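Sequence only, no structure available. Ideas?
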Amino acid sequence: MPTAIPIDDPDDPRLFAYRQVRERDLVGRSGGFIAEGVVVLEKLIRGGRHRLDSVLVADKRTQALAPLLDGLPADVAVYSAGQAVMDAVAGFHIHRGVLAAGVRDEPGLDALLAGLPQQALVVGLAGIANHDNMGGLFRNAAAFGADAVLIDETCCDPLYRKAIRVSVGAALTLPFARAGSAEAMAERLAAEGFDLMALSPRGATELDEVDAAPRTAVLFGAEGPGLPASVMARARSVRIAMAGGFDSLNVATTSGIVLHRIVANGRRGGAL
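Reply:
I predicted one. Tokens follow.
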């Protein structure tokens, strides 16, 4: 592995990318992102989608992480610092003891769609502003074999540190692209031959009755407002049956149920 560089000064300029993580996450990182935790670092190293710039590790964890860090390219800097220094740099206690600075490499919408197979499952997201939900949606999309995620212009950033962490690194490995407005996203997916399936508590069809097409795009909106009416009008609207007096689920929970059912139905029918 690259030789760990010891750091004992929180103001060391080599740690600029890690300074005051929370505040800088909120205003954006000019093409960069911060990943946190061993599992996420493993996804980042082995996923190959985004370039890893450097790693900051608590000195007490360096030896234990040696097998993972051995897989780093020689030009990736590994910094080792005491817990107090690490916390001072980040601005909060880094109890996982591992941070990594990466450079995002996102395909454009055209390139992403052109690279999809003839049989494909895509998740489309509109108005997802909560990073926990975004992370959960990516985690479920990866778990059930979605080929890509499209997000509209109002969604939060999947590569925000908390979204990456909640996704257990799936946001770093699953291809995604922004697709303009929700209406533009639906229009483009339809033009690419995708059957559009829109989730809503008022959906016309029960999930149990849905068959997956060879190219299926499942669309999820924010809790509360849901998907725009114009998007619902051009898609098959689908609902999940629930007990009386209750009509909605958390959007990430919904995605897990729906994707599992679509994939299971598709496999039985040979569509996906």
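The chain is about 35% helix and 20% strand.
Hope that gets you unstuck.
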